[in-house]
Design goal:
Elements (H helix, E strand, L loop, with lengths): L2 H4 L15 H13 L5 H4 L3 E6 L11 H14 L3 E6 L13 H17 L4 E6 L4 H12 L3 E5 L6 E3 L2 E3 L3 H11 L5 H8 L14 H12 L14 H20 L4 H4 L2 H13 L5 H12 L6 H10 L14 H7 L2 H7 L16 H4 L25 E6 L2 E8 L9 E9 L2 H7 L12 E4 L20 H4 L7 E4 L11 E6 L16 E5 L4 E4 L3 H8 L11 H9 L22
Parallel strand pairs: 1-2, 1-3, 3-4, 9-10, 10-11, 11-12
Antiparallel strand pairs: 5-6, 7-8, 8-12, 9-13, 13-14
Helix pairs in contact: 4-10, 5-6, 6-13, 7-8, 9-12, 12-13, 12-14
The structure holds FE2/S2 (inorganic) cluster (FES).
Length: 575
């Protein structure tokens, strides 16, 4: 008997509460469920859970109630019982010190609720940066049939002859404001025009990147990544997710373990590179892969980056917005261009292999937005990993969004010990800094008290910004928003707070960056490094609650910053 047959849909009697008497537990559960108005006919059907994450602190999930209703429609159409349940929600700009600290918490919430409640399959609905990775991590560990649905991107809006969309334009205008190029009145007006509809950020930031690589991974339905949040197709997609989840509930397949494999992870990396996606996606993909016991090899990213061109012309690398990718034909068009490089035998939530759902050629592609493989937007992939004495286990650079004139550089370091130090000195007129220097931020990595915020996009010191300096090499153990751009080296690991070599850098040291050689080195001898290491300061750690759990068990960026005890767990339930 196959595993699928053994685990046929069990509906309301799935995962019974343990009273030592299964008959009593089923009777009691049905009784209480009937108090919610369900008929016995409904309770005898397969159940599709809908993990919903609306919150007054999450603008990107504003459309969640409509999506839930549409998913329910799909489940009911196929004869199932849809039951919505909440999980925590992570609104990117509403969480302190950073949403990254809570991604693993949400993943545990999703995993445990998927495993503990009576459902035969699930549709998980997320959108904002950390929610989709958290849901995929949870689903990968719970390993029940799951379809990921994203809320979809916001619309960009016309403004004075151009379009504005969160959040590359947020940073562009803030940089101009800091440089004194626009007034207080103008920046206040722009503030009200950057994010004007429901949905996640409108460019190829982290949310859009995660939507794309989820589709490439096979965990969402084809064509779903780029549909705008406010488009009626988004609701039709939600209904289709409900229908498909119901089919999966009945067949108990495919399971996440059949979909998330080393091959599908590599496909996701290909797509990440071709869309010039967010650096954050490398961390999230490592965490998702880690849940299935798969290591995301940074050398593999470098290999793929050399042979996978950037095909998509979207901000922050290019000019357009997610709604334009949707109008151009969606992510499927990109995957068609990459078809010869993808593993086509990977299983997807459709029940078909990737090759089967890519068998029909797209009827039309807007080549302004999605370039042919033979005429790419950029010749090489958007991301690379760097290694060297400053980053022994790796660092990440989004070269597609960086200034190539800074790619081969040896220069003096100007070092900030912490985010507080950065904010107190970066605009000091007496700061000893020149345009050719390298800015370094320490103690902003996963083990730091600030838990790896998106602070790696260090502002250009005001005294240089007002002189017209737009970009400098910046290095840190922090992350960067996927909507940002610049020559910004991120995720240096081991991070400073765990005693990595980054902790040893001092202002005036020489640092060498070589994109060609994929190296990042501090030009000090081992003896000098060891001498400095003896005087390293250990920062105090949280002593209670979730902050302690986070600090004590978080892994480094190459392991996805997941908790060490969550990686590689299959969590099979005993029969
Ligand atoms: Fe939610 Fe950007 S703030 S995706």
């Amino acid at each position: 008997m196959t595993k699928q047959n053994k685990n046929k849909a069990k509906g309301i009697t799935n995962n019974l509460t343990n009273y030592g008497d299964p008959g009593f537990a089923a009777y009691l559960r049905r009784s209480f469920a009937r108090s919610m108005g369900y008929s016995l006919d409904s309770l005898n059907r397969p159940i599709v859970g809908i993990a919903s994450s609306p919150s007054g602190f999450n603008n990107c999930h504003r459309s969640m109630p409509d999506l839930v209703e549409a998913v329910k429609r799909g489940v009911l159409k196929r004869g199932g019982l849809p039951i919505e349940f909440p999980t925590i929600s992570l609104g990117e700009v509403f969480l302190s010190p950073t949403s990254m600290m809570f991604r693993n918490l949400m993943s545990m919430d999703v995993e445990e609720m998927l495993k503990a409640q009576p459902m035969d399959a699930c549709v998980v609905i997320g959108g904002c940066d950390k929610t989709v990775p958290a849901q995929l991590m949870g689903a990968a560990s719970a390993n029940i049939p799951t379809v990921q649905l994203v809320t979809g991107p916001m619309m960009a809006m016309p403004y004075q002859g151009e379009r504005l969309g969160a959040c590359t334009d947020c940073r562009r205008f803030w940089g101009r404001y800091r440089a004194g190029e626009i007034s207080d009145t103008a920046i206040n007006e722009i503030e009200g025009k950057l994010a004007t509809t429901a949905g996640s950020c409108a460019v190829m930031g982290t949310a859009s990147t995660m939507a794309c690589i989820t589709e490439a991974l096979g965990m969402s339905l084809p064509g779903s990544a780029a549909i705008p949040a406010v488009h009626a197709d988004r609701l039709r997609m939600a209904e289709a997710c409900g229908e498909r989840a119901m089919e999966m509930a009945q067949s108990q397949s495919p399971l996440p373990e059949q979909i998330i494999t080393p091959k599908s992870i590599e496909n996701a990396v290909r797509v990440l590179l071709a869309v010039s996606g967010s650096t954050n996606a490398v961390v999230h993909l490592a965490a998702i892969a880690g849940r299935r016991g798969i290591n995301l090899d940074l050398d593999m990213i470098n290999r793929l980056s050399e042979e996978t061109p950037v095909l998509v012309n979207l901000k922050p690398t290019g000019e357009h917005y997610m709604q334009d990718l949707f109008a151009a034909g969606g992510l499927v068009t990109v995957m068609h261009e990459l078809k010869h490089l993808l593993y086509l035998d990977c299983m997807t939530v459709t029940g078909e292999t990737l090759g089967e759902w890519l068998s029909d050629e797209p009827e039309w592609i807007d080549r302004e937005v999605v370039r042919p493989f033979s005429q790419p937007y950029q010749d090489k992939g958007g991301l690379i990993a760097l290694f060297g004495s400053l980053a022994p286990t790796g660092a990440i650079l989004k070269r597609a969004a960086a200034d190539p004139s800074l790619f081969e550089k040896e220069a003096r370091a100007v070092v900030f010990d912490s985010l507080e130090d950065l904010s107190s000195r970066i605009d000091d007129p007496d700061l000893d800094v020149e345009p050719e220097d390298i800015l370094v931020l320490k103690n902003a990595g996963p083990k730091s008290v600030v838990c790896m915020p998106e602070a790696g996009y260090l502002p250009i010191p005001k005294k240089l910004a007002t002189r017209g300096v737009k970009d400098m090499v910046r290095i840190s153990d922090a992350r960067m928003s996927g909507t940002a751009f610049g020559t910004v080296v991120l995720h240096v690991s081991p991070d400073a707070a765990s005693g990595g070599n980054l902790a040893l850098v001092q202002s005036g040291d020489r640092i060498r960056l070589s994109v060609k050689d994929k190296r990042l080195d501090i030009l000090l001898s081992d003896a000098d490094l060891n001498r400095r290491r003896e005087n390293i300061q250990i920062h105090s750690a949280p002593n209670r609650g979730y902050a302690k759990l986070y600090h004590d068990t978080v892994t480094q960026a190459p392991q996805g910053c997941d908790f060490d005890f969550l990686r590689g767990q299959t969590n099979e339930k005993p029969e």
